[in-house]
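SAMPLE LOG
Freezer: B-3
Tube label: C17
Construct: single chain, 342 aa
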Amino acid sequence: MATLLRQEEKKDIEGVPKDILFEKIEKEPIAHAKYGYCPSCRVALEYNSDTDEIYCPVCGVVYDDFVEPHAEVKYAKPEPEEEDIQIHRRLRPQDIYSIDSNIRRRHLDDATMMIKRAAKALGFSEDHPIVKTAVDILARYIKHQKTRSDSLEVSAYAALLIAARINGYAIVEESLLRTLNKYPSDKIRRIAKQIRSKRRNIAETLKISTTTSVIMNKEQPIKLLEIYRSKMSTVEILRDYEGAIIKKAYEIWKKAKHDLEKLNKTAKTIATALTYVAAILVLPETRRVKLRQFDISDIFHTTPITIREVLPTLMKYLTKKEQELVKKCMRRGRRSLKKKTD
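STRUCTURE (predicted):
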């Protein structure tokens, strides 16, 4: 009986097509797209090494700076009970822009530290968007251009200033160097010239235009006030009143900004005058009488003349009491407050 059953089972098996009976189903690893997915087409983005761009192969939309902060890889384990494991790896600029040279990778790491220190000296945090933009700019530049160790600091500062201008902050090279308190005054002009030349070279190489970003940003004077907040604390008269001064300057700015824009003055000039007037109105009497125009102009690396050029426009938007305070407390130049000895 058992023999007959085995023969019947054999006939059933022989009747089944071979390609169906012994077909093996292999499970291939599942990998997420390295650069993410197009939100419109739902397809994996691809990288074009010639143009250094990430794009959608279906709709053609370019995502130049779109990279997922963490790449996730999903694969099947060979064990009987298969599990999905996600491996997280933070992508570095060296990986994003495919920088293979060990020297260039090390240079980018060193320059990143320089950018963060310089940004902190200007009043930005290490996580500020300007820092990320500066590192991305430098990474793109290093990928196509060789850098030297002795000029790496110049390149780092140049990238930071380009990033600042893209975000609407018009910071000049001399102001950055003075803020760092690292270079002697007789060398600042020479180093600033090198940074300016490198800034133009990077912008030209990467086809970056920053002029429009700075000019179109109408809040530029207020942006500068936040940058120079740390410099205010170096003036003893203003110490502990920095926040109140910036708040008052912003109030005056909102009233007078339309007339201030017609003066055709730089943002730094307007910021200097706003800070001077706001300081007079905020400081207590004991400190107000000691305030000089030079104390304020020295913070922004300008001159007292810049204050006097903008002051008439600001006075129109002050109350009579505030106007009297400003006129009474005006002190010019570098006059010493020390008592004359007999």
